[in-house]
TrEMBL record:
Record's protein name: DUF7660 domain-containing protein
Top-rank taxon, per record: Bacteria
Organism name: Paenibacillus cucumis (ex Kampfer et al. 2016)
InterPro entries: DUF7660
Residue stretches making up the DUF7660 domain: 16-83
Length: 83
């Protein structure tokens, strides 16, 4: 069974798993475009950055990881869904 993006983002630990996540994120954009909140790269990156700023100290249901690869992957993932 193929893993979801959410599962993949939580498995990111290093450069190789980050790249694998980015490939999956790109494929998700191609196949599930209707699930994305943003139509342009500009708005996607803005959403990722906004969520990154909002969560820099963690959130109620989110504990910021120590691993920078995982943190970057999480911000990219949130660029997909954060409004």
């Amino acid at each position: 069974m193929q893993k979801t993006l959410f599962e993949l983002v939580n498995e990111v630990q290093d450069e190789a798993t980050f790249i694998a996540f980015l490939i999956a994120l790109s494929k998700d954009r191609q196949t599930c475009r209707d699930e994305w909140q943003h139509d342009s790269i500009e708005s996607f990156l803005e959403a990722a950055a906004d969520w990154g700023q909002e969560s820099v100290n963690g959130l109620t249901h989110y504990e910021k990881p120590d691993n920078p690869w995982k943190r970057c992957a999480q911000m990219m993932y949130m660029g997909k869904i954060y409004e």
